Recover the amino acids of this structure.
């Protein structure tokens, strides 16, 4: 009972630490790519610490993530919590490792972690959820051995003479069985829960994503990346030229054709023309997104 | 900035006279814009002379045609000094090379020293007759033709000489529809003279504009990669007519020179200007790549023994380089 209370207090304390007061004004603007909750084992043992891992990937380069709320870990005792934010050219990764221990055997249902942020793709405040986890906590081998030994001693104390005979019989029987069966080593398989695959984005959403990126970053590099992304979206192969792409069926329709030509200009024009070229490309992308059903 | 009268006007004027042959027309215009010379290879009767004559007429420029023969002398091209008995002195008579558009017909019929005289004039843009040097007119474009069908008694141009041509265009037969249009256009009346649509000054201003056409870094790397693959083509495969697969490097003795790299950049700029752009695109480079490389690559005997077309090898190499 005392352990359960300790666990509850620790979990509540951890939740308080991790949850900042969230208002729409204080929410970060993020493009969430993945948000996953996992454990380093699916079958933790009682009284043996294990880890829960919250992994968040966003496109933006940030130094901290504010509004992540961890699940209430009522059936577990919290032992530690480490957070780390790393950034690279593709964005940032938030990794939080929570060290916990279960004191009672049975099924552990861990609710999803949540994140509140403004979606950089459409500017709306949203709440993201990770997957939930279902783990089964089992007895530790030490505890099993201890229980068996005390029961065995009780029996010996009460029925010593008979027990001696029975014990001799059991020992002989075990010895015979041990000789018959070769010892088997069971390698524990640790399976990390797989996050649900992200929903397939529609053509319109992809074009709108490209528009958001190009409007946010009006550089040659962004124009080249958006051009490559649009080519991938319509199934054009890398290494093709604009003429190759325009020869593809459907590429000669006016809105798409305008997008392809405008992005080509943005990728290859001279520096003084880059800004109007990107403006032209944004307009063409907007018209194309509007024409896609 | 692009001049008021555009190179595209010239293309439209030539297209009114010449049916089809878009590659020839574009090649002539690119040579004009890039200050280079063109080698045309194709059977007779495919409007090569008409194209050159029309180009000169559209520019109000002077056109001269030189028929190359085995007994031609260098002085027949560049000119000579003749003794004037009345004046008792030598007078210089300038040869037919002193024109804005020169058609060197069947260049491979003349011996090496005549070819060399022409090619030197093309390179230096001046000729020396006696003690005096004479500047060639500006613009000065040589269109040299070669007939691939009748090669007996010809003197093949060495690769080093061919490298001086900016591009080599293979002139093919017209389609049936084009041939029908040729009938309609020329059978009932003589060739309509081309009306002048630009001046020689326009050409000079277009050249300056072509020089300022922007080439992005990615495009420069693409150009270098295209030329490099002609020297390192181990990874390129070509299929012969018998169905056997050959690596391109087995068919090539030596690849294109750095002059090809420069030519690709010049021509990509020129093509962008023809398309009314002041920046070049990968399409510009790819469109001129075959014409720029085909006369600069040294193919070996295996090409003929395996019955593989040189253009197939070049197309495979171009396709092997991904555009940026």
């Amino acid at each position: 009972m005392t352990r359960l209370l300790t666990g509850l207090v620790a979990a509540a304390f951890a939740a308080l630490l991790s949850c900042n007061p969230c208002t729409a004004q204080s929410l970060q603007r993020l493009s969430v790519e993945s948000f996953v909750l996992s454990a380093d084992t699916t079958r933790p043992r009682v009284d043996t610490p294990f880890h829960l891992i919250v992994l968040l990937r966003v496109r933006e380069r940030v130094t901290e993530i504010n509004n992540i709320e961890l699940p209430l870990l009522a059936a577990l005792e919290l032992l530690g919590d480490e957070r780390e934010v790393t950034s690279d050219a593709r964005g940032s990764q938030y990794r939080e490792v929570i060290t916990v221990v279960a004191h009672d055997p049975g099924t552990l249902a861990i609710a999803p972690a949540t994140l509140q942020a403004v979606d950089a793709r459409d500017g709306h405040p949203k709440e993201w959820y990770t997957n939930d986890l279902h783990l089964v906590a089992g007895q530790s081998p030490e505890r099993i051995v201890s229980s068996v030994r005390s029961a065995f001693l009780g029996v010996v104390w009460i029925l010593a003479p008979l027990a001696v005979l029975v014990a001799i019989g059991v020992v002989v029987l075990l010895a015979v069985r041990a000789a018959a069966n070769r010892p088997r080593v069971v390698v524990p398989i640790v399976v990390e829960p797989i996050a649900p695959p992200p929903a397939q984005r529609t053509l319109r959403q992809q074009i709108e994503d490209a528009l958001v990126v190009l409007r946010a970053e009006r550089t040659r590099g962004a124009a080249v990346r958006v051009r490559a992304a649009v080519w991938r979206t319509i199934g054009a192969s890398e290494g093709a030229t604009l003429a190759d792409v325009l020869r593809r069926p459907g590429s000669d329709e006016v809105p798409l054709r305008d997008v392809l030509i405008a992005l080509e200009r943005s990728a290859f024009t001279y520096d003084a023309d880059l800004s109007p070229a990107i403006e032209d490309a944004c307009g063409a992308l907007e018209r194309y997104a509007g024409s896609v059903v | 900035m692009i001049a008021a009268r555009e190179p595209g006007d010239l293309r439209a004027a030539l297209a009114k006279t010449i049916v089809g042959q878009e590659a020839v027309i574009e090649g002539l215009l690119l040579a004009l814009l890039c200050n280079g010379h063109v080698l045309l290879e194709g059977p007779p009767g495919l409007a090569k002379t008409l194209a050159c004559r029309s180009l000169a007429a559209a520019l109000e420029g002077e056109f001269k045609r030189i028929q190359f023969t085995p007994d031609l002398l260098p002085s027949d091209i560049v000119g000579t000094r003749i003794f004037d008995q009345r004046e008792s002195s030598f007078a210089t008579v300038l040869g037919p090379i002193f024109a804005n558009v020169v058609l060197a017909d069947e260049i491979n019929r003349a011996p090496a020293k005549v070819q060399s005289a022409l090619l030197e004039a093309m390179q230096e843009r001046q000729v020396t007759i006696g003690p005096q040097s004479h500047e060639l007119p500006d613009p000065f474009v040589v269109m040299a033709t070669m007939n691939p069908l009748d090669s007996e008694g010809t003197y093949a141009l060495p690769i080093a000489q061919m490298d001086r041509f900016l591009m080599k265009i293979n002139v093919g037969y017209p389609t049936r529809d084009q041939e029908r249009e040729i009938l309609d256009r020329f059978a009932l009346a003589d060739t309509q003279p081309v009306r002048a649509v630009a001046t020689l000054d326009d050409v000079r201003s277009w050249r300056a504009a072509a020089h300022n056409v922007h080439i992005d870094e990615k495009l420069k790397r693409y150009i270098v990669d295209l030329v490099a693959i002609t020297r390192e083509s181990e990874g390129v495969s070509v299929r012969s007519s018998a169905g056997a697969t050959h690596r391109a490097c087995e068919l090539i003795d030596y690849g294109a020179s750095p002059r090809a790299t420069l030519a690709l950049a010049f021509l990509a700029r020129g093509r962008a200007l023809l398309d009314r752009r002041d920046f070049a695109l990968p399409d510009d480079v790819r469109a001129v790549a075959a014409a720029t490389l085909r006369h600069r690559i040294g193919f070996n005997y295996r090409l003929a023994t395996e019955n593989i077309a040189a253009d197939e090898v070049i197309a495979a190499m171009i396709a092997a380089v991904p555009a940026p």
